[in-house]
Amino acid sequence: GRGEDSFPFSRTVGPVGRVIAIEAHPATFAMLQQCCELNRLANVLPIHAAALDHAGTALIGDCEDWRDNAIGESGDFSVPASTLDDICRSKAPGPVGLLKLNIEGSETAALRGASELLSRTRLVAVACHDFRADRGDGERFRTRAEVRRLLDDVATAPVLDVERGNVSPEVVLGPSLGRDGNLLVVDALAEGHQSFARWSLT
Length: 202
What we know:
Elements: H1 6-13, E1 18-23, H2 26-38, E2 44-48, E3 50-51, E4 56-60, E5 71-72, E6 77-82, H3 84-91, E7 96-101, H4 107-112, H5 115-118, E8 121-128, H6 130-134, H7 144-154, E9 160-163, H8 169-173, E10 182-186, E11 195-200
Parallel strand pairs: 1-2, 1-10, 3-6, 7-8, 7-10
Antiparallel strand pairs: 4-5, 4-6, 8-11, 9-11
């Protein structure tokens, strides 16, 4: 995203922790970088990449509403792609307090590329976009069932589905996340999405 969530996440992890903010769209990434620089968010590391299940490149659209930009078989920009496992192997090698995904239909590919990361992540929040499939944007946005299956395969505590949740970063973080940890943020946690799935590995 553009950096809106960087403030609460930055405050939550504190000066010893780190927020890794991953954004695929080049213009949105430039805004994210500028937000972090102007607000001196020294513990936020912006990374320009699409989080997928393979490394290489990906195509992303350039929609009038930046929140609708999505990775697809065609697109306006070619952007670098990587797995979350590869990114976090060097950028966040220790325990991760929160993994948050809101990536417009790419969440299943991102989770498939994050098996090692998920094994050391305490809390996961995934925004699914089945409502975009319902409104005719394409079946690739219908990911909720597969996200649930992927989470059920690795979760050691029950998965919580929140229907049509308006979930703020503070609600997702909660009081138990603690400070001086790692947060991995992939795009922005926008309000009004169809569902969120999250679980605790504590």
